Amino acid sequence: MPPFRRLCYDATMPTKHIIVGTAGHIDHGKTALVKALTGIDTDRLKEEKERGISIELGFANLAISDDLSLGIVDVPGHERFVKTMLAGIGGIDLVILVIAADEGVMPQTREHLHICDLLQVKRGLVALTKVDLVEPDWMEMVRVDLEGFLAGTFLQGAPVIPVSSLTGQGLPELREVLRELAEAAPPKRQAGIFRLPIDRVFSIKGFGTVVTGTLWSGTLKVGDEVVILPHELRSRVRRLQVHGKTVEQAWAGQRTAVNLPGLEVEQLDRGDLVAFPGSLKPTTALDVSLALLKDAPRALRNRARVRFHLGTSEVLARVVLLDREELNPGEESFAHLRLEGLATALAGDRYVLRSYSPALTIGGGSILDPTPPVRRRARAQLLEHLKVLRSGTSGQQVERLLLQAGPAPITLDALRASASLDELSLKEEMKRLVEAGVAVPLGGKGELGYIHRTTFDRLAGEILSRLEEFHRKEPLKDGLPKEELRTKLPQAGPVLFARLLHDLIEERRIAIDREKVRHYLHQPTFSAEEQAVKGRLEAIYRDAGFQPPDLEPALSRAGGGGKAGVTIFHRLADEGAVVKIKDDLYLHREHYERAKGMLLDYLKLHTSITVPEFKDLLGVSRKFAIPFLEHFDSVKLTRRRGDERVPYA
Ligand SMILES: Nc1nc2c(ncn2[C@@H]2O[C@H](COP(=O)(O)OP(=O)(O)O)[C@@H](O)[C@H]2O)c(=O)[nH]1
Ligand SMILES: [Mg+2]
Fold this sequence. Notes:
The protein has about 650 residues and is an alpha+beta fold. Magnesium ion (MG) binds near residues 30, 31 and 54.
């Protein structure tokens, strides 16, 4: 299964890769700084050169040492291109917030910082650029301002480095701080589900379509079969490049270019996602936690139309506030997002919301359930559910998801996408839940998925009541044809249905004869032939007196060998025509009562009886006398005292 192929670091894993993003207001010197650091001019478009502004994402790389390499994503600062900035900033490990010393904090400085905060970028630094343009005392004022601006954000207390891309002042120090931050950044998880959100699509002569992106998690190899979501386009990786070098394998945290044969540039878009087939499911709805920024311009109303940004994608959406009509700036709540297009998410992913018009960053949060069902339940219950998904233990989260999946078996793959647990913890959690009887595994070891016990029991109960109803209406019929019963439980798929029947048979609550299912207690009517067998069987036992035959020869003599014969015989017993003494030893009711009466009469006269005396009384061998007496002991007619039996009471 593709997503689980590689779980550990590979010995061939290359140098640590860290993705650095720039952020900041237009014209504050982001592109100039990247060029000063790397020698690469990321403004490649003619229009970018002419207008002197970045429109597209720019990419550069910086080898810090033999085992540390930085991929740099240079983003546009113009307010019209915040959408592009968002596509570049997802998946970065650290940010360089660029602020021009002569201008200070400007609108997109603020907006970009908010975006990084919402996406939970963990580290970064501030580059105070264009220091060659300002006087030292002005610098001091800007620094003091900055402190207030950064307070309460992830950059509070972060290094602030004055630089000039023009004179080179401060660049060595900046490089040094970058190195320290990059070394301290945890490496990306190679074990996660493979995801590469696409940020560029283009075509290269002789190769065809190429997509690029920051590899979020997992790894990708040449030859891997991939699917481009959300439109489920298939391809196979023909060529892979990392920072312009052809490689066999790309790892989480690398800027990656993938050559995808068989796909046209027009079929793909920024915002699409490269994944392994079957590993992820696009959705039109999401359950999320949502925080509105403190400086959002106004409250967010229930059902407001917004722009939803996840990875490199933007989808229009309506926000369904689950417990209020309005969310005020600075407040947080649970929400359900109804998307106007498709998005592909994993639980725990961070997202950003922008208002529809004007397009302004207003808030964001994390995905709690990437594929929620249609929301129909009571609000209090739903909020409880989301609370568990947000802050419950992993066991609670998994149980929630099982409950929510209802009769649709949910596989480990699917759980892994929803529960934001790594594979090992998930397996352990599942094992615990199966042992505790909470999860019912299908296909022996759960390879066909799991069902919550509550759902399982509910469906089992439904089968029983369907059967009762059927027997009530059709008392003369043996049972409900299996296929007909199945159509009455359309929620249960074939695997679950088979498992339900299996368990109900084991528990002796139903029986199946010739593909007909009946309640265990229902007595089917016999055919004339079966009635005849039954009559002959009874005669055999009646004629045998106190020395009944073994069951099997009796059945063949009656002409009812095999399983069907046993069923007929059990009917005889259920009706009371024969009485069970032990295992396969039965007495006809008539002789049973006779033996009982003789025994009681004897005991009235003699107060006790031995085995030989009982043998003589009935005229049978020990083979019969001993089990008969043991039977009468067990039904509390007699009691054993040494070698004798006495009346029980
Ligand atoms: N004097 C001076 N000018 C700079 C410096 N950095 C950038 N600039 C100029 O500021 C303008 C905008 O720079 P650019 O890097 O394109 O800004 P961006 O929009 O943030 O990418 C350009 O004209 C640069 O030459 C600097 O350190 N000192
Ligand atoms: Mg620029």
